[in-house]
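We emphasize that the prediction below concerns an isolated chain of 280 residues; any contacts that depend on oligomerization or on bound cofactors are therefore not represented. The input was used exactly as deposited, without trimming of termini.
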Amino acid sequence: MLKNKENRVMKIVIYVVCILLAILSVLPFWIMIVNATRSTTEIQQHAISLIPSSYMMNNIKILLGKSFNPAVGFMNSLIISIGATVLAIYFSSLTAYAQVAYNWKLRNVFFSFIMVVMMIPAQVTMIGFYQMVYKIHMTNRLSMLILPAIASPTMVFFMRQYLQPTLSMEIVQSARIDGAKEFMIFNRIVLPIMKPAIATQAIFSFVASWNNLFTPLVLLTDQKKYTMPIMVSLLKGDIYKTEYGSVYMGLTLTVLPLIVVYLLLSKYIIAGVALGGVKG
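Result of the prediction step, given as a token string:
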């Protein structure tokens, strides 16, 4: 009887903690969305409010009446995010498969090199990368924000850790005996096995590409090529210094697709974290 009471109390405590954490996680997003419906005066007088106001359409008009073009920014961000995610997923999975399925002399050395590259911040290599892009006349090209995703050491590490205990070499050998080529084995057998890991990493890669501000800010100077994060970062200047409602509206338009992605695919994120913890 005493154990049952203790279990009930423990469950109540866990539920309360989980509810509080959920509220703390959702609250900043809700405040941002509410502020997007408020006027600048309301925001200045009361910085925090949980009740939406009636200035949403006015903030949208101010936003669209200036240099902010959400349609262009959204399309550019979408092209970059989808392209980078597809390339990162496929080539990282291919590299991880080569690490697991083949025995070659420098396999461990190559994996160590990948681990070292993981520790190098992108900012350190940006000067050399920009110089290379400038010399080959590829600045202001969205492709230069997509192609580097082919080399994604963090994703290679995750895919390798997932594939090692999952991939059965007997299946691969059977396919080879049946006359299947290596790329056919990878595309038809290995990729379907990796679906949970691919789904999880696709979400993280998409979100990282969508939120990336540093690299596009360095490479892009043409307003027609601006991404959503760049456009939002420019809202702080000049005319928008006092138009806080419009700034929050721009932030909401930027974050909204990511919220939708998380709501639709959150189960894959949870599954992927669990896989990383168990299989790593």
